[in-house]
Amino acid sequence: MKWGAIVGATFIVSLMTLYEWPKLNRKQKKEKAAFVALTGMGWLLAILLAHFPELPSPTKVVEAVYKPLGKLLE
């Protein structure tokens, strides 16, 4: 089950990259770097969620980090 999800996520990321990469010009280095970084983070998150489905959502992580800061600012 886990391997199927990983292969599926990898296949979708590959199709996205094959479709979008030629549309980016050679001079768009920052856009290419952003595309690679965001796609890589999304792919990594998909693999982590396939292996550890009980992981908290990103919203809960941000809330846990910034909740003490919010209390401090009140």
Name the descriptors.
74 residues; mainly alpha; 78% helix; 0% strand; flat
How does this structure look, described?
By secondary structure, this protein is mostly helical. The protein has one domain. The protein is built from 3 helices and no strands. The N and C termini lie far apart (47 Å). The mean pLDDT is 89.
Topology:
Elements: H1 2-20, H2 29-51, H3 58-73
What is the gist of this entry?
It is built from 3 helices and no strands.
Helix content: over 70%
User: Any idea what the radius of gyration is?
Assistant: 17 Å
Structural class: mainly alpha
Instruction: Extract low-pLDDT stretches.
Output: none
Mean pLDDT: 89
* Strand content range: under 5%
Major β-sheet profile: none
**Bulk shape:** flat
User: Domains counted in the coordinates: how many?
Assistant: 1
> What is the ordering of alpha helices and beta strands?
HHH
Number of helices: 3
